[in-house]
Request: fold
Amino acid sequence: MKYLDEFRDPVLAKKLLDQIHATVTQRWMIMEVCGGQTHSLVKNGILDLLPEEVVMVHGPGCPVCVTPMNLIDQAVQLSLREGVTVCSFGDMVRVPGKEMSLLEAKAQGGSLKMVYSPLDAVQYAAQDAFEGVVFFAVGFETTAPANALAVLQAEKQGLTNFSLLVSHVLVPPAMQAILDDPFNNINAFLAAGHVCTVMGFRAYYPIAQQYETPIVVTGFEPVDLLQGIARAVTMLESKDYTVENQYARVVLEDGNRAAQDTIFSVFEVGDREWRGIGTIPESGYVLKETYRSFDAVEKFGLLNRDTDTQNGCIAGAIMKGQQKPKDCPHFGKGCTPVNPMGAPMVSSEGACAAYYNYAQPTVV
Reply:
């Protein structure tokens, strides 16, 4: 698309790299929140072109990666239950649970349907009034409007056989949890542009001020990321602890009010567990009381089982920015996209998958 050409311009990218090299005077740790940003940084070789003083830290911003194992296990339970079909996006079906993934459950006779939209699941539910259809509603704020619309559509059609297994998480509380961690070493954030497209970025002002941590709302193209890094470095060097919007071509300060209204007509904020991080208070969406009849956990009486994840996977440390994928002894050996040990190797936005595909020699 022509309008994106300037954000892929190698000449402008070179100028921004020169600016970063000329500006930085000390070591700065900058976390890109979104897995899509990680993917672009690695794929485009930006990590190798930055000065050694600028260290990019990969955050938890992949919704597939942060979905806790107990929810994978609940989805597996549902898929193996007679008369129930689980509908899910493609990445989720390969994420390991304690005993198996959704795809492995399907191989054992489970009922699983991969869809492109939650409305596909609603349509599927409308075709058979006697079958329970559960959509695995995973994502950050970005996917919440569509999932809320699915509930509203199911309500409008009077569908009692449609429900959601909800795993919606919110970015600002996760950033605060990372900054509150005693091992935190983050100096600045590149905020996820697509999340801010929906929610705006007013919620980031108090975080930047309280923790003296600059935040730059950033897009996903190479020049977007370099502009975001350049601004973050400049702000750090000048001790400017505020919020800037690099992604102004898409993001407004107040976000998309219509999308927010849709979200909060169906969901409310509640506590959420994050894989590898733990429970973060007020960090996710849960169905409001008036829509609890669409909650698969309550409808099917699902158990929250013990989910010991001690299989050698260091996904939690990677998503908190404490380690890199190549620090894992299983990376590229026992853990590959074909045989993943953890979610960051499954998702196309996972840090481990990005490093495996673009930043490592072939492992024999």
